Amino acid sequence: MGYHSCGQSWRVFIFSCILLTSPFQLASCNKETKGEEGKVTLSLYYETLCPYCANFIVHELVKVFETDLISIVNLRLVPWGNAQISNNSFVCQHGPDECILNMVDACAINVWPDPKIHFKFIYCVEHLHLEDKHNEWQSCFEKTGLSSEPIRNCFEKQLEVRLELQYADETAQLDPPHAYVPWVLVNDQPLQGDYQNFVAYICRAYKGEVIPKACNTELSTASSEVANPKFNNPNVCHYKGLF
């Protein structure tokens, strides 16, 4: 296929012609894209081979789709995480395989903009990672019933690099800066160490009249105040300058 298989030892080079192409022309992953009116925006900044990101996606974030929560959520996934750019290369915290899979996810989000579609593919990849089988990520096309052709075309056009450059810039502009991943925001407010309590934050942020059943359950069992988002959570991959 047009992309590299995982397991190869290589650095992801950014050629000058791509660096000179403005990534902000790629509207499909533009942060300013508005969700449906009244919905709560849930943003996840992550990297594909951080085990805590994988666990969050597979066991926690999936609740958005397993319940009726998706009816009030505008979900945004940003696959860059703690990656950095050095000597015109992408350098990823968990090695070159992670760089490849970050780009695969970026392409998936671009070619399948509906969260219900790209999430099931990303979920499949992260589930394989939890089983130490991320090298088998291409099996997710068959498992999800999605064609590999759009992803191959994305790589053949070198769109994956430009998408990642935009995600890198967006991540760099976070305020406060992300300290680790998963880094979760609800309506642009970082949950920091309390990210696993994201459902409660969504339900409290929602101002609509029709309350999802997921929120009725959450609000009836949660305390009156959401926990302090600044408490330490050991289930994260910390950002470290060039690792």
TrEMBL record:
Glycoprotein keyword on record: yes
Protein name: Reductase
Gene3D superfamilies given in the database record: Glutaredoxin
Secretion signal, residue range per the UniProt entry: 1-29
Keyword Signal tagged: yes
Keywords: Glycoprotein, Signal
Entry GO MF terms: oxidoreductase activity, acting on a sulfur group of donors, disulfide as acceptor
UniProt family annotation: Belongs to the GILT family.
